[in-house]
Amino acid sequence: MKTTLTKMLGFAALGMTLLATTIPTWAGLVGTQQVSVSINQYATSGSGSMVGARYSADNQQHIGCSIQVGRYDAAPSVSCGARNISGAYYYCYSLNPRYVEAVQGMTDSSYISFERLNSSTACTNLMIYDGSDQLR
Amino acid sequence: MKANVQKLIGTAVLGLALWSISIPAWAGMKSLREVIISDRQASGTTAGARYSADSQQYIGCYMLGNSDFVTCSARDKTGKSFACYGDSKFKAVVKAITDFSQIYFYTSAPTDAVCSYLEIQNDSLYFR
Fold first, then answer.
1. Left, alpha or beta for B79 (phi > 0: left; psi -120 to 50: alpha)?
2. What is the DSSP code string of A26-65?
3. What DSSP character marks residue B68?
4. Is the ipTM of this complex over 0.90?
5. Which residue from A47, B13, B95, B115 has the fewest beta carbons nearer than 10 Å?
6. pTM attached to this predicted model
7. A11, B30: Cβ pair inside 8 Å?
């Protein structure tokens, strides 16, 4: 009797555990894209979500932006870079204060997109998107 | 005997199931650099310092509401500290610090208290 009870309790616990493991407790729109880098004849662009990169299955992808300033610089600058699943890395750089402001708004679930001309490392566009669909 | 074996198997399966919950299922490139300090510079990630094995490390910057200056400071695992301050230009950089930042700052000389450079990198690499 005791053995049967122990078995029943064990299976009940196992069932609850497996149920909790397999059934997500959330839904909602999810758009956490992995890192993409594309190059055409004129321009290079990089995009992807922080969550998509960090929680990808490979160990290559990452995406992010930095802000830096030196003591004798007139203003801070920004650079954004992305490495895709193949290991290709591209970045751009800018002194545009609007881009600085955009990077200040980054969170751990931001979607980042940037562009530059192939002839220059200067950013020609930068977008930081924060939304519920970017949450893990 | 049979009941014991069943119990053992049940416990093992249960243990594996619980283990699978506690182990994160993600990979991705990451780099949780801990705090490094030399005679005139400091660097490290916020997550690397916070989740280091010791109770010494930290790295961060603060702004005062009634001042244009910011101060960045860090301590490594041996207890060695380093700090410098910067003017209003540095505020824009400090505003970008998150819980997945790498912070890097230096002065021009070991005795100099004014920051010569400050960089904040926010990257998926620095997620915990």
1. left
2. --S----PPPEEEE-SSEEEEEEEHHHHHTSSSS--EEEE
3. S
4. no
5. B13
6. 0.80
7. no
